[in-house]
Every structure is written in structure tokens, then in C-alpha cells.
Fold this sequence. Notes:
Layout: H1 2-7, H2 39-97, H3 100-109
Keywords: Cell cycle, Cell division
Protein name: Cell division protein FtsL
Amino acid sequence: MAQAVRTISYPEQPKRRRVQAKPSERRFSVANQPVPMRLQDFLWYIVAGIVALTAFICYSVVNTQIETANQLAATTTVQTQSVRDKNNTLKEEISALTTQTRLNKVASKAGLTLQNGNIKNVK
Length: 123
């Protein structure tokens, strides 16, 4: 029996073939050679540039409008203050012209006399 075991042969295993890897289709850049830009990347850069330029133009236009509005507001404020000053001056002048002593002087120059029974104060 020992001899029978020795004579048994095992079936041969098929030899595995080594599969060679296909060369990679990717191209790696060498330090001195630039990587070519794809059209899609180029278009994204163009779109980003246009967006940035549009944003800058919008900012400039809005900033100019704000400055113009601020100048207009300052001019209006100065004009308003000027009119208020004139109104205050005119009110003081009216107060000075309507005093009782001034009215009596004007009346005496015109030949009018003061009669207490005929006085009526109107405001």
C-alpha cells in the first residue's frame, strides 16, 4: 500500500500566464513640458473672467451712482440750510418792523393819532 501511494501522481496545475499590463494612456508631464489645457478648462477660465469683469463693472457703476447721490444730498442739505437761514433772518426783520414803537412812529409821520377806544389788536 505504501507503494501505491507513492505511484499516485497528482494532476498538474495549469501554469499561470503573466498578463502584461497595457501601457497607460495617461501622459504624465515632464518637468520641462507644460500640460496641454483642455478646451473645457479653457472655456471655464473664459467664463470666470467674464463673470469677474461683469462684477467689477457693476460695482463701479453702483459706486458711481452712490457718489452722485451723496453729492446731490450734500448740495440739497446746503441749499436747505441756506433757505432756513434766510427765513430766520426774515422772521427777525418782521419782528423788528412790527414793534409797537415803530408802528407809532410811522403813524405819527402819516398824521395819525392814537385813540385808545379805536385800538384793536389783530394777530
